[in-house]
């Protein structure tokens, strides 16, 4: 998976490191990503998203759905419902 924020779309940036003598060498700036579990109240489920710390501040202010909508994203692409209700095999075997 690429180093890209799922909410804002920010990713790795490229440019030059410029020395005092103006020699230019290529360098990269990586986005500061964290994995967070976020609870969607209206769907009653937890979603794991990989987002930048800047986007995390936005989520605290606006909420997940509003932040994704502002940046033109789609919640279904980020957090599909195909895993809802599926329990890991270890838990299912322990109940039997």
Q: What does this protein look like?
A:
With 96 residues, the protein is α+β, with helices and mostly antiparallel strands. The two termini are 36 Å apart. A hairpin with a 4-residue loop joins strand 3 (33-40) and strand 4. The protein has four helices and four strands; from the N terminus they run E-E-E-E-H-H-H-H. It has a two-stranded antiparallel sheet with strand order 1-2. 11% of the residues are buried. The mean pLDDT is 80. The radius of gyration is 19 Å and the shape is elongated. The protein has a single domain (1-75), classed as Ribosomal Protein L24e, Chain: T, CATH 2.30.170.
In short:
This protein is of the alpha+beta class and 96 residues long.
The total of helices stands at: 4
Radius of gyration based on Cα positions: 19 Å
Strand order of the largest sheet: 1-2
The mean pLDDT is: 80
Number of domains: 1
Q: How far apart lie the N and C ends?
A: 36 Å
Number of strands: 4
Taken in chain order, the helices and strands follow as: EEEEHHHH
Which stretches are poorly predicted, pLDDT < 50 over at least 5 residues?
none
CATH topology: Ribosomal Protein L24e, Chain: T
The major β-sheet equals: 2 strands, antiparallel
User: Architecture, according to CATH?
Assistant: Roll
């Amino acid at each position: 998976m690429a180093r890209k924020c799922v909410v804002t779309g920010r990713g790795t940036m490229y440019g030059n490191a410029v020395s005092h003598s103006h020699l230019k060498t290529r360098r990269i700036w990586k986005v500061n990503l964290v994995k967070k579990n976020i609870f969607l109240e209206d769907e009653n489920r937890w979603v794991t998203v990989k987002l930048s710390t800047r986007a995390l501040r936005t989520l605290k202010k606006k909420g997940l759905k509003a932040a994704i909508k502002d940046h033109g994203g789609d919640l279904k692409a980020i957090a599909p419902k195909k895993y809802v209700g599926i329990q890991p095999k270890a838990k299912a075997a322990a109940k039997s």
